[in-house]
Design brief:
Strand content: 15-25%
Structural class: alpha+beta
Number of strands: 6
Distance between the termini: 32 Å
Number of helices: 5
Strand order of the largest sheet: 1-2-4-3
Radius of gyration: 18 Å
């Protein structure tokens, strides 16, 4: 919507859009969430930089199954799955399990709060996943770590060039804008 009006928070209704902006990088919000099982309510903490990489992995390889946070990886990616599980334990005190069947590995963590956060922030189903536009304004180190996880999950380097694979048009757009912002040379080809 190109036309907008100013409203107080109390007068907002379901379906209203909120537009906001920040003047300097130092004022930008770091994504915040607290999912520690010892708190009965959501307590906000600043997200550590390392968790941005975990979020990237989830956008690439994650899904929600019955309010559980899941990552589906190849069995050769077991060290990455263990790292993700360690980060979730370290920062959010969440445990989980890793199950291997043939060439598939599934990491599963039970947390309704984290599941709700991931689904509301990034969407669900591969074709509908997105990254909030406001994340383009995150400090560079946060954006780089997020992209690192995204590329580790759904991309790579081939003949010295970054490659990224997704069926989500929103993710392609975000990655394009993020790489441009970071002054990383890239191109996209549609197959």
């Amino acid at each position: 919507h190109s036309d907008f009006s100013f409203k107080t928070v109390e007068s907002l209704e379901v379906g209203d859009y909120i537009k906001y902006g920040y003047k300097t990088e130092k004022q930008l919000p770091i994504p915040s969430i607290q999912v520690n099982k010892h708190y009965s309510s959501l307590k906000v903490i600043e997200t550590p930089v390392e968790m941005m990489r975990v979020f990237g992995w989830w956008v690439a390889e994650g899904f929600i199954d019955d309010r559980n946070v899941c990552f589906c990886l190849h069995v050769k990616e077991k060290p990455q799955a263990e790292w993700i599980l360690n980060m979730l334990k370290k920062y959010y005190d969440l445990g989980g399990n890793i199950r291997i069947r043939k060439n598939s590995l599934r990491l599963r963590v039970s947390s309704v709060k984290l599941a709700n956060y991931l689904e509301s922030t990034f969407g669900k189903l591969a074709k509908n996943k997105f990254v909030p536009c406001s994340w383009l304004d995150l400090p560079e180190e946060y954006l780089k770590e997020f992209l690192r996880g995204l590329f580790e999950g759904d991309g790579g380097i081939y003949r010295g060039r970054f490659q990224y694979f997704t069926i989500s048009k929103q993710l392609i757009s975000f990655v394009d804008l993020a790489l441009t912002k970071l002054k990383i040379s890239h191109e996209f080809r549609i197959r």
